Prior knowledge:
The chain is an alpha/beta fold. It has helices spanning 41-48, 97-100, 141-145, 148-161, 178-189, 201-210, 223-230, 248-253, 276-281, 294-305, 322-330; strands spanning 2-6, 15-19, 29-38, 59-60, 64-72, 84-87, 90-91, 111-112, 124-128, 132-134, 169-172, 193-198, 214-217, 236-241, 255-263, 285-288, 313-318, 337-341.
Amino acid sequence: MKAARIHQHGSPDVLVYEDVPEPKIKANQILVRVRACALNHLDLWVRAGIPGITYTMPHILGSDIAGEVVAVGELCERVKTGWRVVLSPGVSCRQCDQCAAGNDNFCRRYTIFGSGVDGGNTELIAAPEWTAIQIPDDLNFEQAAAVPLVFLTAWHMLVGRANIHVGEDVLVLAASSGVSSAAIQVAKLFHCRVIATAGGEAKLAKAKELGADHTIDHYKQDIAAEVKRITGKRGADIVFEHVGAATWPKSLESLAPGGRLVTCGNTTGYDVKLDLRFLFSKQWSLLGSFMGTLGDLHQVLKFVFRKELKPVIDKVYPLSEIRAAHERLENKEQFGKVVVMP
């Protein structure tokens, strides 16, 4: 079978489309023929190398996986051959106290397809039976692959961590990213007023199409000043962050008294400053968020399956053109998800 693998860290040039052995499933695993796999910034980071983390080489990237079940292990009881499925991107032990409590993203063995274990940039993948979630016939594989990681992350950030309330003001940074395009929709599900940032008129227009009530060009406008203008000098109840150093000062400045900033990333850098006087005097909450629980994924998928939340696909490439897909995401040319199809 064919797969796209890295044998060393580096630029998109290290991605090699090649023949690899077919995986053999264990008794509690299923074999999925991958029909689509969406890219995330995690793919770029793992490909380039993450300081302090060693990956077994060669390695297959890809966290967001959709396909057809072609075989099931002898201990599998729920999933059937022929099912059209999406796989939960997060993998945990399913045995520890955190997993038993439903907090699987706190599991000490928690990892993600394409990171700690081989991912979906391949024709066939072996996966634990419990990761498979059946998808409706009217959701195609490209759409299904564009959902899991970003909608799971956005749901956990806004619902699980920031405790979003109906009608709040929500500032969403970098609307063109997969996770922010999901966040805009989740916030609108709660009838919130959404202020979204993006770079350039085309991306701002697409943010509006997703439901953003107001948009800010973060290359030309002062984010905090615009948020204060829109909210009558009050600020945002929730700031949805993942950009990091480039937007951090303005993200804090955009918060209303008692506001919550929730972050899941640091695309532009992790070294930021915080004036503690504002933190306690304005009674802000700064919240970290990582992925989400399996329960979160099932919850958000209900709305996807009902068409109340919609995956946003930027461009689809054949797996053989995986380098071009990485370059598009790395160059910030996309709005929404870049997908590859084996």
